[in-house]
Amino acid sequence: MPPTAGSGGLGAILGRVIPWFFVGLFLLFVAAFLVAPTIVLMVQAVTGDHGFTLSYLASLGDYQYRVAFQNSIILASASALVGLIFGALIAHAILQPGAPGWLRSIVTSFSAVSSNFAGVPLAFAFISTLGALGFVTVLLKHVGINIYAMGFSLYSLSGLTLTFSYFQIPLMLIVITPAIEGLRVQWREASDGLGATSAQYWRLIGLPILLPSLLAAFLLLFGSAFSAYATPYALTNGNIQLLTIDISNVLSGNVMSDPQIGAALSAGMILVMALVLVVYSLLSARTAKWKR
Fold it and tell me: Can you give 195-254 as a three-state secondary structure string?
């Protein structure tokens, strides 16, 4: 039985309305859990007992908070850089034409799991492995290598960077794999046909094309590490000053209860992420010219 004009019209209307319904739900979700909390934080950061004040934002220049900003940026940048380099190299290796298919399946499956393995379980795993009495640390001592006597400490920024690499490298591998797969074989064949070396191909063709994807991936890794709380707190018990730990301290009252300071620190974190986004946008617009 052919559809009537009325049923066809109703189906067309539903076909146009339903997608916008879900888009509206998404925008409502963003407004409720991203925009509104951000506005509340900004207002709280400049509001004191006697009304408007910039004293809380000015307190971000205090030594302890400057150290927290510095440590958080160093940790996020270092772990993102490690994830970027090793994740991209591993992704490139398993996507080589001669690489076995089972290797790619194993690596991508492991990456999907380990990229979400963080928090207290990850901290416990590294303490059991590379802590002062971890089995790898003890095993190395038996062969005459004392990594703690050599300056390494799992409970330092370098130890946190190593711990974060456990989920940063797999996350980078997952993110960058589609971009590397997008490199056309014809580009490499044309490069080889013109006598270019492998280094020249990557310097003049491969890396410029991948640069926006690499920058986006670095931004993702930076944000992931910059906002991490559970892993560094469980690993160092709050002995290393990081923004997320300081925010927790002033909100929970472990050190002092001062929600306005917590809001000011959160506003500082948002400012850092906004600056990173601006830099990414500028670099992305610049590299887009190379792809035309």
Answer: CCCHHHHHHHHHHHHHHHHHHHHHHHHHHHHHCCCHHHHHHHCCCCCCHHHHHHHHHHCC
At residue 171 the predicted structure's pLDDT band, cuts being 50, 70 and 90, is: very high
Contact 169, 83 (CB under 8 A): yes
Q: Can you read off the two tokens belonging to residue 292? A: 């035309």
Distance of CA 34 to CAs 28, 29, 224, 231, 259, Å? Answer: 10, 8, 16, 23, 19
User: How far apart are alpha carbons 134 and 227 in whole angstroms?
Assistant: 27
Closest CA to 201 of 217, 215, 186: 186
Burial of 107-140, coded b for 16+ CB within 10 Å and e otherwise, reads beeebeebbeebeeebbeebbeebbeebeebeeb
Among candidate residues 33, 60, 57, 35, the one with its CA nearest the CA of residue 44:
57
Q: How confident is the model at residue 249 (pLDDT cuts 50, 70, 90)?
A: confident
CB atoms within 10 A of CB 221: 27
Mean pLDDT to the nearest integer, 187-209: 88
pLDDT of residue 75: 93
**Residues whose CB is less than 8 angstroms from the CB of residue 79 and which lie 6 or more positions away in sequence, other chains included:** 160, 161, 164, 165, 168, 221, 225
d(CA 165, CA 162): 5
**Eight-state DSSP code of residue 150:** T
Amino acid 44: pLDDT: 85
**pTM of this prediction?**
0.81
What residue type is 146 in one-letter code? N
pLDDT given at position 172:
93
DSSP-based three-state secondary structure for 48: strand
Radius of gyration of the chain (CA): 25
Residue 253 is predicted with a pLDDT of 65
Closest CA relative to residue 72, chosen from 284, 276, 180, 222? 222
